[in-house]
Design brief:
The complex is a heterodimer of chains A (470) and B (440). In chain A, α9 packs across α10. Helices cover 34% and strands 14% of the residues of chain A. By secondary structure, chain A is of the alpha/beta class. Chain A has a domain of 293 residues: Amidase signature (AS) enzymes, CATH 3.90.1300.10. In chain A, strands 1-3-2-4-6-5-12-13-11-7-8 form an eleven-stranded mixed beta sheet. Chain A has a two-stranded parallel sheet with strand order 9-10. Chain A contains 14 helices and 13 strands. The chains are: A alpha/beta (470), B alpha+beta (440). Chains A and B meet through α9 of A and loops of B.
């Protein structure tokens, strides 16, 4: 087996046991990248010195393993562009807290991965540096916005990876690429040094080959940061401790499978089958009916979240992108591509006098309805089961000319993202004809990362969908 | 010719002298620093940088609110105020919109009370410098001031004259200085004044349908002059049946006039929304009470105290309270054991400091005490010494003596001056005059 196929866990263990050297690991990786990166367009930049940094890190927790980093995390070693020409060649003067922590724990940033420009999208097709292809089937989209990181994992072009999610940007590409992606609770991982998309929902998180890999990376990413006032001073557990606890006695609820767009599809079948697996392991699983009012015991239909999320996110985007005003960074506002311009215009409109009450304020009101609904459900259930996406990866080009492409793809995670909840996507189905995957989204209440990891690990162990976990 | 009543409101910006910036660790003291040397990713608004509010700045704003009798909000938040300007690196200013830290309050003036509308906290912007570089006219940006904590105090339109505005501003300045939250140094721009002026016909109620704002004035005198200028200008226009244009003007020191800067037909749309990077703030009653307990003495309390404790008159108390340096010098001097032992009275110390110390920052209380004690001691020169000196001068200047006796009054002053010179400043001057008059 080539060493680039190793999981984070195995790579660390084997490096520490001196079964191979950093040079050998990085060699296999570089060979794979040389062979496949041009096919999939995953990395925007690579650190040729990475291997020389790894040697000294053997005694650290992460032992010098390479990680692929989404290009919206500021890194001093490599340019940071958020896949936009506006920041082409931008070399940040500081590192994001998340990458700094991961580096301090002994990982090496091997390269920066492609993404939807400014994280605007769910296809990685809006990148100014060209689209990324799905390594499972290059005719199809990898998803996004963290498409490059998910594809890097799927193609074994890294050992670990990180991305960021506002609503679906980790879990949707993880699902489409057949890998594992965890969106932490808002405020669990610092946003400092992550180029802002929608500040009130941005959540950096791990993308990995296995649930365990995500748990390892999260342990070294999470925590209070005095540079991010929205992180909380809660202790960070060793998340890997939760992995072996099993699901016996856990209460789970299935959501959104009665949605008319999903009922009767492969996804419906896959999620119900996953629920059976949990039941067999001793969990109690209920079907939670979808409702239009979110009354007790029901889950509020995700359709409203599309509007809420669109308004909140566009509003914040229009504000967050105002700093690229042409005075600094060397590019004026005409360099923004179509998608960003679209979002800036819509967000400017929804915040404008006379419209803010109609759109922004109303969106915040509906957002609090979702909050109440989830509070109600999590008073009964440990975790909720759903999917990050309404279906399989769509063919390349599917996002073109569809201004709400992302919002429709991410509909099922928008409600929980808007309220800051955590969730993890694990592979739960594979179409043998297309080699495309579906993901099981295990959602937890805020700060319940351990519960979702516990359920996800149990599921991964009990099923055969994850090739790396075998 | 109509009679008009001015309707004036004030907006005052005060830079807080906290150690660090409003949302970052950069030094808040930016004055006269090399451009762009006191900056960081946060105050430069770099991608990925996030603001974390300065607790001291919040506390001090609440303290100012308490000093003004404002109601302190239990829940407050920051908002983003959007506009494009090269000195604003994020494309928005972090300010407060609908939940300011403090609402209401009042400062009494001799012309009537001036109500405070609100007091809120925000960040200062960078500074533009127009310069010529390599023969090209350019505008340079200095971000040292970007992110310095800035308090905005907004009054109700209760002010009716430039005198009242000036008195209000002086009192506010005094309060800010007493609280020790800002240097409020107008020359350095750490206190900036913006009067809003309009006129209504005498006897009318309600706000006029226009308002002229004069921006960034850096002295009380200029504020008063700008108000006077605007009142006259508006009256002329109104007499001609024209409503003055709603606009922003600036004060031109060279012309002694206000000049139009920009006209806004309608209020600008700043697209305010809650700053998502900063969680809302909640304050407990105990937290606010703690600030109140630790609030330094305010000017009125100070004046009452020095009058009661040291016997100062109104004038002395007022003059001292207007000059923070002199005030400190007074309290420092009057409490020195040496001053108390020499039984030098409070009013004597106050008079000395008011009349003989031009720059309070250049002298210490000990130095002042020494000077006062010395001046007291010289009054105890023996009478015989004085008489000897007078006799000597009279005998040396027979012509002057003769002139005086012939009715030339000036000659006495010449002789008096010569005696004082001979005594080298020692001796009680009144006594010298009395003795000299007797001799003559």
């Amino acid at each position: 087996m080539k060493l680039n196929h190793l999981t984070v866990k195995d790579a660390i263990t084997k490096l520490k046991k001196k079964e191979f050297s950093h040079a050998e690991l990085y060699k296999d990786l570089h060979d794979a990248i040389a062979e496949k990166n041009s096919l999939y367009n995953i990395y925007l930049s690579l650190d040729a010195e990475a291997v020389s940094k790894a040697d000294a890190l053997l005694d650290t927790p992460l032992a010098g393993i390479p990680i692929a980093v989404k290009d919206n995390f500021l890194t001093t070693v490599l340019p940071t562009t958020a896949s936009s020409f506006v920041l082409k060649g931008f070399r940040p003067p500081f590192d994001s807290t998340a990458t700094k922590k991961l580096q301090k724990a002994g990982s090496v940033v091997i390269g920066k991965t492609n993404m939807d420009a400014w994280a605007h999208g769910s296809s990685t097709e809006t990148s100014d540096f060209g689209p990324t292809k799905n390594p499972r089937n290059p005719e199809y989209l990898p998803g996004g916005s963290s498409g490059g990181s998910a594809a890097a994992i799927a193609a074994n072009l890294t050992i670990g990876a990180i991305g960021s999610e506002t609503a679906g940007s980790i879990r949707q590409p993880a699902s489409w690429c057949g890998v594992v992606g965890l969106k932490p609770t808002y405020g669990r991982v610092s946003r400092y040094g992550v180029i802002a998309m929608a500040s009130s929902t941005d959540s950096p998180g791990p993308i990995g080959k296995t649930v365990e890999d995500c748990a390892i990376m999260l342990t070294h990413m999470a925590g209070h940061d005095r540079y991010d006032g929205t992180t909380l001073p809660r202790p960070v557990p060793d998340y890997t401790k939760a992995l072996t606890k099993g699901v016996k006695g856990m209460k789970m609820g299935i959501c959104y499978m009665d949605h008319p767009n999903i009922k009767g599809t492969d996804l419906d079948t896959a999620i119900l089958k996953a629920a059976k697996v949990f039941e067999e392991m001793g969990a109690r699983v209920d079907m939670i009916p979808m409702s239009r009012d979110g009354k007790k015991g029901t889950i509020l239909a995700p359709d409203y979240a599309i509007g809420v999320y669109t308004v909140v996110q566009r509003s914040e985007v229009s504000s967050n992108l105002a700093r690229y005003d042409g005075v600094r960074y060397g590019a004026d506002r005409s360099v923004f591509a179509h998608e960003a311009k679209n979002r800036i215009m819509l967000g400017t409109f929804t915040l404008s006098k006379g419209y803010a009450d109609k759109y922004y304020v109303r969106a915040q009101q509906v957002r609090s309805l979702y909050r109440k609904n989830f509070e109600d459900l999590f008073s009964t259930y440990d975790v909720l089961l759903s999917s990050p996406t309404p279906g399989y990866a769509l063919p390349s080009g599917a996002s073109n000319g569809d201004p709400l492409f992302g919002e429709l793809q991410d509909m099922l995670v928008e409600p929980s993202s808007l309220v800051g909840n955590t969730g993890i996507s694990v592979p739960c189905w594979r179409n043998p004809e297309t080699n495309l995957f579906l993901g099981l989204n295990i959602m937890g209440d805020q700060w319940q990362e351990e519960k979702i990891l516990q359920a996800a690990a149990a599921y991964e162990q009990a099923t055969d969908w994850n090739e790396w976990a075998k | 010719m109509n009679t008009y009543e001015p309707v004036i409101g004030l907006e005052i910006h005060v830079e807080l002298k906290t150690k660090s910036g409003m949302f970052c660790g950069c030094p808040a003291d930016h004055f006269a620093k090399e451009p762009n040397t006191a900056t960081c990713p946060v105050c430069l608004g770099l991608p990925g940088a996030l603001p974390v509010p300065n607790k001291k700045a919040v506390e001090w704003t609440i303290m100012l609110g308490l000093a003004l009798g404002s109601e302190i909000s239990e829940v407050s938040k920051f908002d983003r105020k959007h506009y494009f300007y090269p000195d604003l690196p994020k494309g928005y200013q972090i300010s407060q919109y609908d939940q300011p830290l403090c609402r209401g309050g009042m400062i009494a003036t001799s012309f009537g009370d001036v109500r405070i509308h609100r007091v809120h906290l925000e960040e200062d912007t960078g500074k533009l410098q127009h310069a010529t570089v390599d023969g090209k006219k350019v505008t340079l940006v200095d971000f040292n001031r970007s992110g310095v904590p800035l308090v905005e105090i907004v009054t109700e339109a209760d002010i009716k004259s430039s005198e009242q505005a000036k008195e209000f501003l002086k009192k506010l300045h005094q309060i800010v200085r007493f609280l020790g939250i800002s240097d409020a140094d107008m020359e350095k721009g750490s206190m900036r004044l913006e009067p809003n002026i309009s006129l209504r016909k005498a006897g009318e109620k309600g706000l006029p349908n226009y308002k002229v704002e004069v921006k960034n004035i850096n002295s009380f005198r200029f504020a008063a002059m700008a108000i006077e200028y605007e009142i006259k200008r508006h009256a002329l226009l109104l007499d001609n049946g024209t409503t003055p244009t709603q606009e922003t003007r600036g004060w031109d020191e060279a012309k002694n006039a206000t000049v139009s800067q920009r006209t806004k037909e309608e209020a600008a749309d700043y697209r305010y929304f809650p700053e998502p990077d900063i969680p809302p703030m909640r304050f407990t009653g105990a937290y606010i009470e703690n600030i109140r307990t630790h609030m330094p003495q305010l000017p009125d309390a100070y004046k009452a105290e020095v009058k009661a404790k040291y016997g100062l008159n109104d004038n002395q108390a007022n003059v001292l309270s207007e000059d923070f340096g002199k005030m400190k010098l007074f309290s420092g001097t009057v409490s020195l054991p040496a001053v108390q032992e020499a039984t030098i009275s409070g009013p004597a110390v106050a008079n000395w400091i008011i009349n003989k110390v031009p720059d309070a920052s250049s002298v210490s209380p000990a130095h002042v005490a020494e000077q006062i004690i010395q001046s007291k001691q010289v009054t105890h020169v023996d009478d015989s010494v004085l008489i000897a000196a007078i006799d000597a001068v009279l005998s040396e200047n027979p012509k002057a003596v003769a002139d005086y006796k012939a009715g030339k009054e000036q000659s006495k002053m010449f002789l008096y001056g010569t005696v004082l010179k001979r005594l080298a400043g020692k001796g009680d001057k009144q006594k010298v005059m009395d003795l000299l008059t007797g001799k003559l």
